[in-house]
Amino acid sequence: AGSSNKLSSQNTAVGAFALTNHEGSSGSNNTAIGYFALGDDSIGLRNTALGSLTFTDNLQGLNNTGIGYGAGRFNLGNFNFFGGSQSGTGSRTGSASISFNTGGFNTGIGERTLYKLANGDSNVAIGSLALYSDSSGNYNTAIGVETSNYGDTASYVTSIGYRSLSFNNRS
User: Fold this and answer.
1) How far is CA 74 from CA 10, 106, 131, 156, 169, in A?
2) Which candidate among 12, 85, 86, 104 keeps its CA 20 to 30 Å from the CA of 126?
3) Is residue 83 within 8 Å of 71, Cβ to Cβ?
4) Which residues sit opposite 50 in a β-bridge?
């Protein structure tokens, strides 16, 4: 854990490869617990990653919190909270094609909420698979299991209840 953490300060790393590539002098106050948590973070600041592969590729993000396996795995944004297995993971068009999440001020609570997020800002998703496919929408609120889970570019949408607006894709 923290094997390359040479120049920064006040970081905590627990687990194999946690904060392993953290070499920047400006990154500090990070907490990484779990296999490869914040593993490729280089100059991130005030990030918390709890779980294997959480914020693995958060290269320079700040003030992010991820709890659960793979939460925020491909996140490059700031001020995000992802709680739940693979919440806020990052967009993908195929198994090998990944778009990193550059969005900020997003909140995802539940398994795979905001799963394909690429550059959307200020979204709130609560409930498993809520806003699952939202890649670039902004200012959306989805509360409930599978709520607004297939709308990928919609903005300013509020949906509440099981599967409400599941196929909405208005922008």
Assistant:
1) 24, 14, 17, 24, 23
2) 12
3) yes
4) 33, 67
Q: Which residue has the tokens 């320079």?
A: 60
DSSP 32: E
∠ CA 75-155-168, rounded to 5°: 105
pTM of the prediction?
Answer: 0.90
Distance CA 58, CA 56 (A): 6
Alpha helices, DSSP H, located in 72-116: none
Contact 64, 79 (CB under 8 A): yes
Provide the residue-wise pLDDT of the chain in tens; the chain has 171 residues: 655 555 678 899 999 999 988 776 678 899 999 999 999 988 889 999 999 999 998 888 999 999 999 999 999 999 999 999 999 998 655 555 566 889 999 999 999 999 988 889 999 999 999 999 888 899 999 999 999 887 778 899 999 999 998 876 655
- Closest to 118 measured CA to CA, from 140, 146, 137: 137
C-alpha 58/C-alpha 150 separation (Å) is 25
State the pairing for strand pair 141-143/124-126.
Answer: parallel
CA distance 101 to 135: 8
Longest dimension (CA), the chain: 49
